[in-house]
Design brief:
261 residues, alpha/beta, 8 helices, disordered N terminus, GDXG_lipolytic_enzyme, hydrolase, triacylglycerol lipase activity, AB_hydrolase_fold
Amino acid sequence: MRLRLAQRSRLSETSEWVSVGDASIECRGDAASDQAIVYCVGGGFFLGPTDMHRQLVDELCAATNSRGLIIHHRLAPENPFPIPVEDTIACLRHINDVFSIRKYAMIADSSGAAVGLSAVVKFGELGGRLPSGLVLLSPYTDLANTGRSYVSNAQCDPNFGPQALIHKAWYYLQGHNPTDPLASPFWGDLSGLPPSIIFVGSKEVMHEDAVRLSEKLNLCGSPTALNTYDHAPHVWPLNARLPEATEARAEMVTYLEKAFE
C-alpha cells in the first residue's frame, strides 16, 4: 500500500531533492527566497508525503513568496522511534546550516506533529535556531491517548477510532514509553517555542490533544491560537475541494506572513 501511494504522488518535475544522511528534503517553491515553509507530514508514522501535501505547500509558498521544504524521514515500522525524530533534527540542522534561510516556519499534521514538534524542541535544546512559527493540523502529540475525546468522539470521527491510533502508536514506539517527551511532545517542556496556530475538527478523536496542547503552549509562554472547525474531518486543510480548507488556508497564510515579518 505504501508503494502504491508513493507512485500516485510523484511530481518529480517540480521537486528537487537533497539527501541528509538516510533522510531527505524535498524542495519546492521559490528557491531564491530567504524564508521557508518546512513541512513534517503525518501518515500514521508509516506513510510519507502525498500530492495533497505538495499542493498545500505550493499554494502557501506562492502566497507568501517562500520556498517549501518537505522532510522525508525514515518510516515505521522498519524504522521505529526515535529514528524519525533524529532524521528530522538532522534535516533542521541542514536547513539552518546549509540553506540561505532568514526565517522558517514549520507545518506539521497528525502524527507529523509528534515527530516535528519533538524534533523542534530537541533541536532548540541542542542550540539550533527555532522556527519563527508553528502551524499544527489535527496534531497527534499524546501517544498515550489520554484525552477524553478518544472516548467521547469515538463514534463520530469518520477517520479514526481510538483502537486505530493505538495500533499506529505501537508500530512507531514498539514498546517504548508513550509518555517520553521525545515521543509525545505534549508531555515535555514546551517553553521557549514560537507563536503557534492549531487547527482541529470538533469531532476528531484527537480534538482533546489539540485543546490541551494549546493550553499548555500558552501556559509555557508560546502564544497559541486554537481554531476548532465544527465537524471538519481529520487534517481537512489538505483537501483543497472543501470550503473549510479554503478558509483554513487563508488563515494559515495570514499567520505565516506575520511569522515571516
